[in-house]
């Protein structure tokens, strides 16, 4: 960022300075100081998002002619169009990259008058890339905008997607519950859904747990008390991190997942209410569910403090496969269906229990049992019982059409339908290259039928299916504009600070509440 | 005598103006305009994709009452001055060593010494991440194997993350100071050393009385430029700690990124950027004042 070529160029001048006359030195140094200041300004110039004076077309205009999922359709009549498609999923791994490139050709063949210019960015960079292109008045036609898409919608850079969705026979009905929840904001559709999801689950190293005396993990580790007992035994008797919290703020979705296990029937742990009339449950002394939510926040911090490494507050989920496969970590709560994450570390990973000799096994998050609060010293959870459940990633993958000509918008919608519903893309994508849950519910069974999946993938599918709405998308149901700052900053960063020892376990829920209320302007 | 007007001067030098016009236009478009617009933005509530409305000094009030900003401001100062001065000393040391080498060797050694500076900051972050990593890193493994003691988590425990960030950044950019110092040292007339040696000055005395006076201006140049760049340094610290654990190593540059791209509050992010400019400008003014004092001392 700071090592600009301008800087290098400027450095040639000072090197000549020592041989020059003294009287010019002051001027030279003053010029240098000015350059330094301008350099800092330059660094900021890149941050200035020109907020555009575009005049978007009225919402809904141009959307009504969507093809309804028929990827053989003629987009916008005979007019040839090229659409820019910005995707992070397309570069998740090498397999996805080539599958996307091939699939764009397939899509173009099926839609003779449409060309797709595929642009990519990592999930870490896509938001800034999208911001730059929108600010410069040159947005992509279609993009994996994630939660930022809602902001673009609220600022009229993204049209209402309802006409597109209504033009199909099967949407929104065929959307997964996570997609239905995520694509809407107070009844309006700001996106065309996400093409895939992953869900959070418990991941264990069978070798460590069998050594700790566990013989039936599905039963013995089905509750937090059972899991805690096993983790305590591992912590005491084995030279391994018994439980590693993925506690970097960007990866505390582990907590988002098991926060739900103190609840039943998909109840939101954090916020309730319609429109702007929100009731924040966290640290709310007047709310009957406060103990469940606060208790799980404390569970997160205490589990990290007692069993995790010193690096837990910085631990990302991508570290875990290598740590678990080399016998350094015995369990974590950020296991996802994507088996390729594990096989990319070790080709012959033994998935599943395998008589206690497996490398990695995926289970549902443990459910809170009535004894857990007492067992772990968290009075808020005494007597509380919940269900299996977890977090379903859906907001991050939402794909939006941006303001463009009708022909381009229609072509973009066709591409969205292709990515959601065409088996030529869907089945290999989520069954082979990046194991995940498809964005359309009926496709889930088709992937299961088509592929012989690893235990971790299959179990993750089962968890999402068996426990239904209890696997839900954190924040999607809140219907607040600041959903991302609340999720990532007010909740996750505050808990991560607690894991890092910046404040105590007990005061953490109160701080989370304070920050959420401030964000909501309450 | 009739005073020449602006128009007179423009007529006289129109070719010169014509030549700088394209550059001026591009600078205005790509540099000055975004800056002016950004400064205006600090008085709005602009967010991702929206121009926002005028909110007066709200963003500055938010800044002044934000605990994380207070921390990030202080830590940024420590990081910037720690890094800048370490870069200065290591760069000087490298330049002095290089000046002792024979031509031919010097060029190759220079290339090696300067190589970190020319590596991408993100790559530097990855190198240090793997060097310091508690589980697979080379440094903890070496210390454990050689001394038989366990090492702290260099990127997470106690004061180590702060030390690690400063050391890693100094490693990456000391080459800049090295380049300038090396050029300055080469330019020092050999006769001055010979005269000092004839007068009985030892090696240290020659360094103090001959070399150092020639290095004052390059030092100010390095300090001013590196301070400005280190304030805005982002990629390597972001890769190494991302401001964590928790927010314990939150630099203003990382906070600016998070405010813009996680919290989507562009106006507040730019307000943070204004605070970074204040640091750079204050440092630049301080350095200029120092050089003026130094000049007056010599006069």
From TrEMBL, chain A:
Q: Which Gene3D superfamilies does this chain map to?
A: Periplasmic binding protein-like II
Compositional bias, Polar residues, is annotated for 1-18
Supply the name of the protein.
ABC transporter substrate-binding protein
Lineage: superkingdom: Archaea
Q: Where are the transmembrane segments?
A: none
Question: Which Pfam families did the record assign?
Answer: SBP_bac_8
Originating species:
Halogeometricum pallidum JCM 14848
Which portions of the sequence form the region Disordered?
Answer: 1-28, 44-80
UniProtKB/TrEMBL annotation, chain B:
Which residues span the membrane? 14-33, 75-98, 110-131, 171-189, 210-229, 269-290
Compartment(s) where it occurs, according to its Swiss-Prot or TrEMBL record? Cell membrane
Q: Which GO terms describe its cellular component?
A: plasma membrane
What species is given as this protein's source? Halogeometricum pallidum JCM 14848
Which residues belong to any copy of the ABC transmembrane type-1 domain?
Answer: 73-287
Q: What is this protein called?
A: Binding-protein-dependent transport system inner membrane protein
One of the GO BP terms on file: transmembrane transport
| Main location class | membrane
Membrane topology of the entry: Multi-pass membrane protein
Q: Indicate the family of this protein.
A: Belongs to the binding-protein-dependent transport system permease family.
Q: Which UniProt keywords apply?
A: Cell membrane, Membrane, Transmembrane, Transmembrane helix, Transport
């Amino acid at each position: 960022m700071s090592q600009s070529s301008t800087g290098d160029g400027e450095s040639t001048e000072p090197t000549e300075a020592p041989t020059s006359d003294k009287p010019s030195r002051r001027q030279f140094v003053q010029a240098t100081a000015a350059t330094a200041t301008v350099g800092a300004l330059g660094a900021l110039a890149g941050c200035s998002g020109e907020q555009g004076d575009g005049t978007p077309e009225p919402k809904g205009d141009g959307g009504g002619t969507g093809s309804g999922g028929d990827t053989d359709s003629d987009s916008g009549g005979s007019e040839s169009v090229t659409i820019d498609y910005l995707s992070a999923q397309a570069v998740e791994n090498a397999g996805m990259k080539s599958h996307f490139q091939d699939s764009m050709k397939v899509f173009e063949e099926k839609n003779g008058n449409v060309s797709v210019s595929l642009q990519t960015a990592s999930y870490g960079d896509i938001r800034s890339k999208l911001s730059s292109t929108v600010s410069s008045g040159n947005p992509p036609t279609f993009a994996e905008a994630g939660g930022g898409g809602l902001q673009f919608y609220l600022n009229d850079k993204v049209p209402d997607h309802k006409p597109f969705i209504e033009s199909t026979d099967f949407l929104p009905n065929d959307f997964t519950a996570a997609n239905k929840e995520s694509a809407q904001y107070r009844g309006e559709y700001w996106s065309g859904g996400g093409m895939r999801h992953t869900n959070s689950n418990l991941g264990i190293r069978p070798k460590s747990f069998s050594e700790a005396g566990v013989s039936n993990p599905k039963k013995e580790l089905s509750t937090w008390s059972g899991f805690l007992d096993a983790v305590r035994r591992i912590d005491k008797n084995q030279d391994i991190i018994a439980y590693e919290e993925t506690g970097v703020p960007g990866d505390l979705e582990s907590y988002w997942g098991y926060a739900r296990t103190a609840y039943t029937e998909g109840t939101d742990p954090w916020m309730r209410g319609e429109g702007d009339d929100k009731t924040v449950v966290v640290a709310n002394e007047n709310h009957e569910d406060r103990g469940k939510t606060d208790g799980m926040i404390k569970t997160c911090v205490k589990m990290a403090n007692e069993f995790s490494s010193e690096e837990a507050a910085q631990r990302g989920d991508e570290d875990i496969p290598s740590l678990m496969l080399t016998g350094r970590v015995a369990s974590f709560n950020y296991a996802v269906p994507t088996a390729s994450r594990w096989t990319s570390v070790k080709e012959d990973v033994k998935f599943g229990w395998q008589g206690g000799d497996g490398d990695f096994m995926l289970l549902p998050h443990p459910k809170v049992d009535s004894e857990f609060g007492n067992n772990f010293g968290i009075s808020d959870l005494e007597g509380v019982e919940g269900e299996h459940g977890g977090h379903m990633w859906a907001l991050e993958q939402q794909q939006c059409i941006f303001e463009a000509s009708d022909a381009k918008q229609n072509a973009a919608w066709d591409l969205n339908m292709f990515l959601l519903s065409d088996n030529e893309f869907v089945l290999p994508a989520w069954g082979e290259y990046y194991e995940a849950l498809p964005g359309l519910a009926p496709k889930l069974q088709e992937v299961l039928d088509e592929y012989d999946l690893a235990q971790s993938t299959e179990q993750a599918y089962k968890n999402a299916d068996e426990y239904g709405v209890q696997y839900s998308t954190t924040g999607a149901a809140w219907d607040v504009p600041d959903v991302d700052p609340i999720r990532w900053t007010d909740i996750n960063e505050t808990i991560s600070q607690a894991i890092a020892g910046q404040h105590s376990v007990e005061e953490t829920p109160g701080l989370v509440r304070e920050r959420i209320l401030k964000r909501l302007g309450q | 005598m009739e005073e020449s007007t602006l128009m007179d001067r423009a007529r006289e030098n129109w070719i010169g103006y014509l030549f700088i016009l394209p550059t001026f236009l591009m600078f205005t478009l790509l540099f000055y305009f975004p800056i002016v617009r950004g400064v205006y933005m600090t008085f709005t509530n602009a967010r991702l994709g929206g121009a926002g409305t005028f909110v007066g000094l709200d963003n500055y009030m938010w800044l002044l009452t934000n605990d994380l900003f207070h921390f990030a401001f202080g830590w940024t100062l420590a990081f910037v001055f720690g890094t800048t001065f370490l870069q200065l000393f290591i760069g000087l040391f490298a330049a002095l060593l290089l000046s002792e080498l024979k031509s031919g060797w010097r060029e190759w050694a220079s290339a090696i010494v300067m190589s970190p500076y020319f590596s991408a900051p993100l790559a530097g972050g990855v190198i240090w991440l793997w060097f310091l990593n508690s589980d697979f890193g080379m440094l903890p493994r070496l210390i454990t194997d050689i001394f038989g003691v366990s090492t702290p988590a260099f990127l997470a425990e106690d004061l180590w993350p702060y030390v690690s960030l400063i050391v890693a950044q100094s490693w990456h950019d000391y080459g800049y100071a090295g380049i300038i110092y090396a050029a300055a040292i080469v330019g020092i007339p050999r006769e001055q050393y010979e005269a000092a040696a004839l007068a009985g000055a030892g090696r240290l005395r020659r360094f103090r009385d001959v070399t150092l006076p020639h290095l004052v201006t390059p030092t100010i140049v390095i300090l001013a430029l590196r301070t400005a760049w280190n304030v805005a340094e982002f990629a390597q610290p972001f890769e190494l700690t991302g401001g964590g654990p928790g927010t314990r190593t939150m630099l203003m540059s990382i906070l600016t990124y998070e405010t813009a791209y996680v919290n989507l509050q562009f106006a507040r992010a730019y307000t943070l950027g204004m605070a970074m400019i204040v640091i750079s400008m204050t440092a630049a003014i301080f350095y200029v004042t120092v050089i003026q004092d130094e000049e007056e001392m010599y006069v």
